[in-house]
């Protein structure tokens, strides 16, 4: 671990502790969350901060928090909604990541066919995500 990474982790964990609701916005790459976002979770949602193990089993330490998840993709939405989004994305967040840490996922939103949209349409989508994330 490099100097500064511990400081950055502490800053981010303080922000996570402070927040009542977390908002995650990301593109779906290769049918999954991008590696840089996974690294964010691996670094910041660590044992004894986000969860811990007890004699009774795993315990989420971020109970009382909610999360909203927004994802964009290039493919038509029906492909993701049928095959990828319900299991790989929702399951990842609800069961293996946020749920594991005690966070309730309040909503999932998928914005599809981003590559085919013109600049004006992409801006409308990003503005929509921004406004929904601020509610």
Please outline what is shown here.
The protein is 44% helix and 22% strand. The protein has helices at residues 5-18, 35-44, 77-97, 119-133; strands at residues 21-27, 51-54, 57-60, 66-72, 104-111.
- Round the mean pLDDT to the nearest integer and report it: 86
Helix content: 40-55%
Work out the number of β strands. 5
- Overall CATH class of one domain: Alpha Beta
Reported for the largest beta sheet, the result is:
3 strands, parallel
Task: Choose one word for the global shape.
Answer: globular
Strand content: 15-25%
Helix and strand pattern: HEHEEEHEH
State the end-to-end CA separation.
36 Å
What is the tally of helical segments? Answer: 4
Provide the spatial order of strands within the biggest beta sheet: 1-4-5
The CATH architecture of one domain: 3-Layer(aba) Sandwich
Radius of gyration using CA atoms only: 16 Å
Task: Describe the oligomeric state of these chains in a short phrase.
Answer: single chain
List low-pLDDT spans. none
Q: Could you name the CATH topology of one domain?
A: Rossmann fold
CATH homologous superfamily descriptor of one domain: Flavodoxin domain
Structural class: alpha/beta
